[in-house]
Amino acid sequence: LYTLYLIPSNFATVAHPLYIFPSSSNTFVTMTTAHQLRAAAEAELQKHSPSASKIIDAEALCQEAEEAFKALSTLLGEHEWFFGVEKPGMFDAGVFAYTHLLLDETLGWRENRMGVFVGSLENLVRHRERILREYFPGEA
């Protein structure tokens, strides 16, 4: 949420083309949609803010995300799919939803600390590539 909606350069180059522009050609509608998306992302992140002031601490948020991705990497280990199953399941799909978005260089990310970090976790990168090859062959 933070990377996509609250970093202004990413919001302009990634969120706008994906979510704002397709919603309407009316300037007022797109402005309202943009405001609502950013406000919803901020509200969601504030729910989990440890500070009483509800200020979003970007550094702490990024560190927590890095810890979560490290944990996912450890959980996957050397398996092809999470939990060592033969075919990917819902958990694999959920992880892919995040890793693919962060690792997709065609989206035009301007600031992508999380993408760089996930890119350093080779088993998560390979996991994403396997799903792309198997389920999205035209995009692999």
TrEMBL record:
Domain Metaxin glutathione S-transferase stretches: 65-131
InterPro entries: Glutathione-S-Trfase_C_sf (IPR036282), Metaxin_GST (IPR033468)
Pfam families for this protein: GST_C_6 (PF17171)
Coiled-coil stretches: none
Domain of life: Eukaryota
Name of the protein in its database record: Metaxin glutathione S-transferase domain-containing protein
Naturally occurring in which organism (per UniProt): Cryomyces minteri
Lineage, broadest ranks: Eukaryota, Fungi, Dikarya, Ascomycota, Pezizomycotina
